[in-house]
Structure formats: structure tokens, C-alpha cells
């Protein structure tokens, strides 16, 4: 490892690696560890430029007997996971979450000082933070390759590292921690990395709730306490008690887009699980408060509430405890399908918040502010953020499913065929029915199973408190009628609950027309009264990039947001943009701070929704210290974008992006859509065909099981290219666009001007640089050598690698660098450290894929499992997978 990598990180990688080596030796013998070291040695020397070692590595791997393939893949996979633990521990300890650009470590105190210098009053700062609406939406996209049981062991290993570091003066404490570390690593080695069955949507929701229980439950009050201290220092007051600048929502159990496993029954179960777990967590808080708040001094309001008792706070908390306990028992009974005959339950946030607020005000009124602002304030903050459901559950469904309901309904009622109507006819019909007081759907309507499921979902919505639910998202939305249909179904079946409705624009064409669709929607008479002059719009990053290529999609996303801001400002509507980002650059991934500040001016006006998916949830929120820093980053970025927004891009920059995007899009489509060899090449060279067997998430890898690559979801599309290190979806087309501009007069100067002065373009280049550093065309070439026979496909592969090489060359010219990641050494070193452990997994994966194909998919269970482990290990080594 490089000598300038932080000493504690280097030491912890060594400690974990040595422990793993001893565990493997105990299990399989020292001779097997020697094999691992031989493989690693070949890989390390190969990375140092020794071509003969690269050949020796491949030859050695191909000679391994079948019985060695699984334990070898497991050994390298485990080391990469342990390296991730060491790096995560380092980032938590040194408050380093984002290391993509020098000086990109936002600190809230510095930002508040800058905001004051820019003329914002202390009151303005408090009001902006109090009114901030940042919602982080936890999604269950299938990119978390590590089993939950192993994640728990890895978290415990992190705790051991902390104990070892804090015990130099207590050798016996350090010895105990080291013993526990050995035990945990042995447990991990003897635990199957790969799930044998896909998780259900309920399993995914439980995983999300576990992140809240194990990390966010502590991080949220810590974040608010830090924020309070900063505001007291800079503005002389705390954040209001009911303020929650950052909240959490979830798609786990609500996202039914293309996932037949998410049903109305599942959604109902997940909502009940949230109620049960929230009650259980609050019971622990309330028991602690009841034990601690033994004071007798109280104000008249509290005494009026509980009467003249010796311990008024305990009395009020005793009553509240009884209701929360009843709530937990009620949720448990509902989940088990049993009757509940207990006492009154907590139905809303206010019913929990109000008694705690009474205690808080009483303590302050009698001069016990120190006690009020301790554990009691922490619980109030939790209630403000988590409510009584832990998260707000979003509902997502495809527009075509709603249209199917309307088609069956209009046909059954003799009104015609909804699908044959023009958009104007649909709008007129829907608006008329929205205004009508008579029901449209017959009480005993006979419809298809698919339509019944849609209706039943709206019935679940009707049965819930509005605060338990978030937004209703419409996938593949393209017209105002798509939104009106959901509004009508909500009116007909959803009872009094009226959720925000967000159309999701995700293809290039949809993004280009998003502003026009929303303008027409907001201009419709009657629609504005339904929304209360608020509109949420979701921008899709994954499918737009898959559809158009990364550069063209990024520019379309930017332009769409600009237009939506202008439309809603002109219409007098409060806009919230919902960013559907994934973990990789190819799906809109990257550091949150840079991503938010690179959005169009005015698009982040105190409100933001953004998805956090798959493995990124664990990386950003899996441990309290990391979660605390991640929340601070979001708060910093949204506050800065609101109070100190970036300037509008210069007109000539926009013209440059129009031209760059056009060239990049044409180049991307020319390969992905128009080259007849592309799909066969993709299927031959990547493990796409085997991905469906990897039990990652509850959702199928394809929207439809027939069709080709166009039906493949963006996640497995990205995952497959990542596995062979070509990363094609995130860069294809960019090289042609940049190269052409650099050949023209003034090209270099204008690109570098945009790099330095336009956050959108600078951030795009940063992400491209990081992506190219993780890519490796030599590895991609080996997959091709091992797996591709046809000369035409090999020729395509050669052309793709030439395009990659050209992009590498022109990017360094634009960045004015000799090598990639010159200014971000931590990332460069982290990649370099992992490569000797990832390289053997690539060699093994290519070998296993070929053996699987030779056997027509009938390789042994151990070899099939080894193939799955290579996928998990490569994903772990590269960190962001899909």
C-alpha cells in the first residue's frame, strides 16, 4: 500500500487481512493460504507492469482444480469486504465521506459564516433551515450484494477496530477486542456470502428499518444537536422543536413498477411493520425518560394534565408508555391476523409529540433547561423526523397500469375505449369525473386481476393516515392524463388521503417534453385546486442514461429541471424535484454535495427529494458517524444551493453542451441501437445471462421477460458492464464529443472555462475521471479473449476499447493532468490497493463463465456458487455497482 495513505487505514487493512489469513489457514491449511499469496503476488506484479506475471496469473487460475475455485473466490471476496470496512472506519473517524475533489469537504459552520457574510440575517438562516424539506428515499434496488447477516458481522468488526484504537493504555481491553475480531472474521468466513433465495419485498423493508434502528436512530438526534449548537453560536437560538430539515422515505414495499412481488397486501404489511418497529424503538426511549425524569418541579400545564402527584413527568410518561405499548401490540396483532382488544393506540405524530412537548415546556418553565435539552430533546427530534411510521412509504406504479384500469372501466360502462381516445378527450373526461360528486367505479365492479390489484393499492392508501405515506410516483409518465388518472383513482378509492402525485420523466424524449407536460397540467382548470399549488416531479437518471448515453442524458436532465423551474415559477406553484439517482456514475451516482450544487440555479429552493439505493445506503447511512456526516453534507448542499446558488450558465456554454450532447448521443446510439453486433457482443462478453440467478433483490432483472437489451433494467445493464470493468454505459459517446471539440479552434479553452466556472460541467468531468480510473480495458479484453469467438464481435470489442483510449486521452487534456485522479489521492490509492484482489476474481469469473457455457449451464453447485461469489467480490471491490 502507498506510503502516504493514512497510517490508521493501512494498519487496519493489515490487521483484518492477517486475521483472515489465520482463519483460512485454520480451515483449509497453510498450503491453501500459500496458493492465495501466489495468486495475489502474480496480480500485484502484473499491476506493476510485469506482463509475464499477468500471463502467469491467468495460467495459474486456469490450472486450479474445481474444488479450489470456490474457496479461492471466497478468500478474495472476503478480503475486499474487509478492506471496505477499514476504509469506512477511516472515513467515519476522520469525517471523510466525499473525497472526489480537493476542498469538497463541506462544513456547516463555515457555510453559515459564508451565508452571514453574503448578507443573510441570523433569523433568515434559522428560517431557511427550519423550512428545509430534504427527503432521502431509501430504495431496494438490487445492488446490495452483501447479506444482512454479514453486514451485522461487519458492523461488529468496525466496533472492534474502534476498541483496539482506543486501548493503547489498556492492553487487556485491546486483547479482548482482538479476540472478538478473530471470532467475527471466522464467523464471516464460515457464513455463506450468497443468499439461496431472493429477498421478498418485506425482507427488503426489514433491511431498511434495520438501518434506522442500528444507525439513524442515533445519528438523527446527534445531527440536530450539532445543528442546534451551531445555531446557538451564530444566531442565538435553536432549531424549532418540530423542524426536520432531513427526513426519510422509502420505496421498499411500495415500488411495484415492474415488480409483481409488490402487492397491496405487501404494502399493507410493510406499513404495519413500520408502525410496530417505531413503537418498539420509542418504548426504549420512553423507558429511559421515565427512569431519568424524576423531578417534582412542574408548571401549571403539566400539573393540570396529571394532577397533584409527586412525580408529574413520570406520571405523564407512564400514560404515554401504555399507549405506545398498545400500539406495538396492535401492530403485532394485525400482522398476525389476530384481533386486538387492548387500549387506545397512537395514530399520529402529534399524539406522541404533544405529551413530550408538555414535559419539555414544563422543564424549561421551572428553570430545568439543561434537563429539557438532554435525552428528552433527542426523543422530540426523533418524533419530528421519524413520526410514528419511521419512514413515509412512497407508492410507484407504471402509467400503463392505470390506463388499463380506465380502459376496462370505460369499456364496461359503455363509454368507449379509453386507450383509443386522444389526449384532449382523456383530459376532458378525467377532469369532469374529478369534479363530479357521484362515484364512477361501480361498487361490485368485475375487472381483471391486474386492475383489481391497482384498485386494492388505492384501498390501502385510503386505510392509512396520510403521514404514513409519501408520494405516488408514475413511471413512464408522458402526458397530463397520466397524472389526472391517478388523481381520479385516489378520489374514487383513496378516501380522504390525497398524496402528492409525481410524474417520472425518464427517457430522453420524456425529459425533453417534461416542461411542456407540466405546463399543460398546471394550466388545466381544476387541477391546481387538487394540489394546493404544489407539484412534485421526478427526474429519472438510470433509464435516461441507458436510453441516450450519459452525456446526452445529463444535459437533458439539466435542461428539464431548468424548464420545470421556469414553468412552476410562472404558474405560481411550489416545485419539488425528486432525483432518481443510482449508485454508479451511469445512473446519476456521485458525491451528494457536488451533485446538488451542480443542479440548475433555483432548482434546489429549500426542498429536495433524492433516492438512496442498494449498497449506497450502507455506505452513507450504515453507521451513526457516517450517517451523521452524510446528513450534514445534504444540509450543507441544500442550504448553499438555496442561499448561495450558482450563477446561470453562460449562453455560449449552453450552446457548447447542445453540440456536445448531440455528438455524444449520435455516437452512443450508433453503437448500442444500430450496430447489429452490439447485443450479441454484450451477451457474450458480460455475465448478463448469469445475473438473473444472483438473488440480489425482489424485482426481476427485466421489465418484460421477452425482448432484448431494451427490456433490461438499468441496474443489471450497468452491473453487467461493471463486472468486466468496461463501464461502457457511463462514457460511450463522450470521447467523440470532446475529441471533436478539441480539434476545433478555441475548443480546449472553452471546455476548460466550463470546467472551472460551471459546477454542472466540472462535476460531470470529475465523475467521468473517477469512472475511467476504475475501468480497465485490459480486463475487458481478457473477457473477450476467453468468451468471444466470432471475428465480428472481436472487432467491435477492439473498436470500443479504442474509443475508451481516446476518451482517456482527451479527458486528461481537458483536465490538464498527466494521470487520472491526480488531485484525489485517496480514491486513487483505494483503487490501487484493491486491484490485486479484484484481478484474480475477474480471471476466475471469465473462466467460470466459459465452463458454464461449455456445460450448457449445468456446472456443479459449487462452481455456480463460485461464479456468484466472483460477482459479489468484484462489486465489493469497486464499491458502487449499480
List keywords for this structure.
single chain, 882 residues, mainly alpha, eight-stranded parallel beta barrel, 8 strands, globular, carbon dioxide fixation, EC 4.1.1.31, Phosphoenolpyruvate carboxylase
Structure description:
It is a single chain. The chain is mainly alpha-helical. It has 36 helices and eight strands. It has an eight-stranded parallel beta barrel, surrounded by seven helices. Strand 7, helix 23 (592-597) and strand 8 form a beta-alpha-beta unit. Helix 3 crosses helix 35 (825-854), helix 10 runs antiparallel to helix 14 and helix 15 (399-412) packs across helix 18 (480-493).
Shape: globular
Number of helices: 36
What proportion strand? 5-15%
Distance between the termini: 27 Å
Mean pLDDT: 91
Radius of gyration in whole Å, from Cα?
Answer: 28 Å
β-strand number:
8
- Order of strands, main sheet, comes to 1-2-3-4-5-6-7-8
Q: What structural category characterises the helix and strand content? A: mainly alpha
Give the low-pLDDT segments.
1-5, 97-103
State the share of residues found in helices, binned by percent.
55-70%
Largest sheet: 8 strands, parallel, barrel
Q: Mind sketching the topology for me?
A:
Blueprint: H1 7-28, H2 30-47, H3 51-63, H4 66-93, H5 108-117, H6 122-131, E1 133-139, H7 148-165, H8 171-189, H9 201-234, E2 246-250, H10 264-292, H11 300-306, H12 312-335, H13 349-365, H14 369-386, E3 392-398, H15 399-412, H16 423-435, H17 449-463, E4 469-475, H18 480-493, E5 501-505, H19 508-523, H20 527-531, E6 534-540, H21 542-548, H22 550-571, E7 574-580, H23 592-597, E8 607-613, H24 615-621, H25 624-643, H26 651-672, H27 678-685, H28 688-691, H29 714-723, H30 734-743, H31 747-757, H32 759-774, H33 777-787, H34 791-815, H35 825-854, H36 861-878
Parallel strand pairs: 1-2, 1-8, 2-3, 3-4, 4-5, 5-6, 6-7, 7-8
Helix pairs in contact: 1-2, 1-4, 1-8, 2-3, 2-35, 3-35, 4-7, 4-35, 4-36, 7-8, 9-10, 9-14, 9-25, 10-12, 10-14, 10-17, 11-12, 12-13, 13-14, 15-17, 15-18, 16-18, 19-22, 21-22, 22-26, 26-30, 30-34, 31-32, 33-34, 33-35, 35-36
Amino acid at each position: 500500500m502507498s506510503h502516504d495513505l493514512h497510517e490508521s487505514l493501512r494498519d487496519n487493512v493489515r490487521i483484518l487481512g492477517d486475521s483472515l489469513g489465520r482463519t483460512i489457514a485454520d480451515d483449509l491449511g497453510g498450503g491453501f493460504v500459500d496458493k492465495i499469496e501466489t495468486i495475489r503476488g502474480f496480480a500485484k506484479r502484473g499491476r506493476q507492469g510485469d506482463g509475464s506475471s499477468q500471463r502467469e496469473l491467468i495460467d495459474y487460475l486456469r490450472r486450479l482444480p474445481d474444488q479450489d475455485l470456490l474457496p479461492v473466490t471466497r478468500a478474495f471476496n472476503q478480503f475486499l469486504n474487509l478492506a471496505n470496512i477499514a476504509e469506512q472506519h477511516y472515513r467515519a473517524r476522520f469525517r471523510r465521506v466525499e473525497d472526489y475533489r480537493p476542498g469538497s469537504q463541506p462544513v456547516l459552520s463555515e457555510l453559515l459564516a459564508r451565508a452571514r457574510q453574503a448578507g443573510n440575517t441570523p433569523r433568515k438562516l434559522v428560517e431557511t433551515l427550519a423550512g428545509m424539506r430534504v427527503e432521502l428515499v431509501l430504495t431496494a434496488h438490487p445492488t446490495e450484494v452483501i447479506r444482512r447477516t454479514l453486514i451485522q458481522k461487519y458492523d461488529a468488526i468496525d466496533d472492534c477496530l474502534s476498541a483496539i484504537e482506543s486501548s493503547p493504555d489498556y492492553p487487556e481491553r485491546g486483547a479482548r477486542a482482538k479476540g472478538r475480531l478473530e471470532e467475527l472474521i471466522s464467523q464471516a468466513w464460515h457464513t455463506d456470502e450468497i443468499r439461496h433465495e431472493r429477498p421478498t419485498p418485506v425482507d427488503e423493508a426489514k433491511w431498511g428499518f434495520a438501518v434506522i434502528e442500528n444507525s439513524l436512530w442515533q445519528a438523527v438526534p446527534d445531527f440536530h444537536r450539532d445543528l442546534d449548537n451551531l445555531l446557538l453560536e451564530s444566531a442565538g437560538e435553536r432549531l424549532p422543536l418540530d423542524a426536520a430539515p432531513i427526513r426519510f422515505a422509502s420505496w421498499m414495499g411500495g415500488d411495484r413498477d415492474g415488480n409483481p412481488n409488490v402487492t397491496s397486501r405487501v404494502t399493507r404489511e410493510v406499513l404495519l411493520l413500520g408502525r410496530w418497529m417505531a413503537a418498539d424503538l420509542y418504548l426504549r426511549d420512553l423507558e429511559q425518560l421515565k427512569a431519568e425524569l424524576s423531578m417534582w418541579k412542574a408548571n401549571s400545564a403539566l400539573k393540570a394534565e396529571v394532577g397533584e402527584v409527586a412525580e408529574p413527568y413520570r406520571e405523564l410518561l407512564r400514560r404515554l408508555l401504555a399507549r405506545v405499548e398498545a400500539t406495538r401490540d396492535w401492530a403485532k396483532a394485525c400482522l398476525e391476523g389476530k384481533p386486538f382488544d387492548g387500549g387506545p393506540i397512537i395514530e399520529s405524530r402529534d399524539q406522541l409529540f404533544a405529551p413530550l412537548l408538555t414535559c419539555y415546556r414544563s422543564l424549561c418553565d421551572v428553570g430545568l433547561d439543561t434537563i429539557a435539552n438532554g435525552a428528552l430533546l433527542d426523543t422530540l427530534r426523533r418524533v419530528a423526523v421519524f413520526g410514528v411510521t419511521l419512514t413515509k412509504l412512497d407508492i410507484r406504479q407504471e402509467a400503463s397500469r392505470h390506463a388499463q384500469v380506465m380502459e376496462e372501466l370505460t369499456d364496461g360502462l359503455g363509454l368507449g375505449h379509453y386507450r383509443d381516445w386522444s389526449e384532449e378527450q382523456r383530459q376532458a373526461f378525467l377532469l369532469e369525473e374529478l369534479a363530479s360528486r357521484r362515484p364512477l367505479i361501480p361498487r361490485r365492479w368485475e375487472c381483471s386481476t391486474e386492475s383489481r390489484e391497482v384498485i386494492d393499492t388505492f384501498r390501502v392508501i385510503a386505510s392509512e393516515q396520510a403521514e404514513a405515506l409519501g408520494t405516488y410516483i408514475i413511471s413512464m409518465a408522458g402526458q397530463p392524463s397520466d397524472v389526472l388518472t391517478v388523481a381520479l383513482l385516489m378520489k374514487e378509492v383513496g378516501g380522504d388521503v390525497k398524496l402528492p402525485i409525481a410524474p417520472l420523466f425518464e427517457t430522453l424524449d420524456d425529459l425533453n417534453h417534461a416542461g411542456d407536460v407540466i405546463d399543460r397540467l398546471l394550466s388545466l382548470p381544476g387541477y391546481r385546486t387538487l394540489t394546493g399549488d404544489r407539484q412534485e416531479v421526478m427526474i429519472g437518471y438510470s433509464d435516461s442514461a441507458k436510453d441516450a448515453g450519459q452525456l446526452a442524458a445529463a444535459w437533458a436532465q439539466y435542461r428539464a429541471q431548468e424548464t420545470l423551474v421556469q414553468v412552476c415559477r410562472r404558474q405560481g406553484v411550489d416545485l419539488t424535484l425528486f432525483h432518481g439517482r443510482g449508485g454508479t456514475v451511469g445512473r446519476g451516482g456521485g458525491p451528494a454535495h457536488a451533485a446538488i450544487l451542480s443542479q440548475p440555479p433555483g432548482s434546489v429552493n429549500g426542498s429536495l427529494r433524492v433516492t438512496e439505493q442498494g449498497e449506497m445506503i450502507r455506505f452513507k447511512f450504515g453507521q451513526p458517524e457516517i450517517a451523521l456526516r452524510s446528513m450534514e453534507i445534504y444540509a450543507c448542499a441544500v442550504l448553499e444551493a438555496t442561499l448561495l446558488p450558482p450563477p446561470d450558465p453562460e449562453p455560449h456554454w449552453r450552446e457548447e453542451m447542445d453540440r456536445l450532447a448531440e455528438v455524444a448521443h449520435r455516437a452512443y446510439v450508433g453503437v448500442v441501437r444500430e450496430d447489429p453486433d452490439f447485443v450479441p457482443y454484450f451477451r457474450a462478453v458480460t455475465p448478463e445471462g448469469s445475473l438473473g440467478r444472483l438473488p440480489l433483490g425482489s424485482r426481476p432483472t427485466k421489465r418484460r421477460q421477452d425482448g432484448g437489451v431494451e427490456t433490461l433494467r438499468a441496474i443489471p445493464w450497468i452491473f453487467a458492464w461493471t463486472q468486466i470493468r468496461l463501464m461502457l454505459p457511463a462514457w460511450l459517446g463522450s470521447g467523440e464529443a470532446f475529441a471533436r471539440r478539441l480539434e476545433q479552434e478555441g475548443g480546449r479553452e472553452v471546455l476548460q472555462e466550463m470546467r472551472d466556472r460551471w459546477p454542472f460541467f466540472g462535476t460531470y468531468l470529475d465523475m467521468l475521471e473517477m469512472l475511467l480510473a476504475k475501468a480497465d480495458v485490459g480486463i475487458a479484453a481478457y473477457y473477450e479473449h476467453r468468451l468471444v469467438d466470432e471475428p465480428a464481435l472481436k472487432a467491435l470489442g477492439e473498436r470500443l476499447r479504442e474509443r475508451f483510449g481516446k476518451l482517456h486521452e482527451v479527458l486528461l487534456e481537458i483536465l490538464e493532468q498527466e494521470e487520472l485522479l491526480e488531485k484525489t489521492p485517496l480514491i486513487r490509492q483505494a483503487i490501487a490497493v484493491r486491484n490485486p484482489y479484484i484481478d484474480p476474481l475477474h480471471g476466475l469469473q471469465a473462466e467460470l463463465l466459459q465452463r458454464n457455457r461449455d456445460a450448457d449451464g449445468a456446472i456443479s453447485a459449487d462452481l455456480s456458487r463460485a461464479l456468484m461469489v466472483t460477482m459479489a467480490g468484484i462489486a465489493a471491490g469497486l464499491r458502487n455497482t449499480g
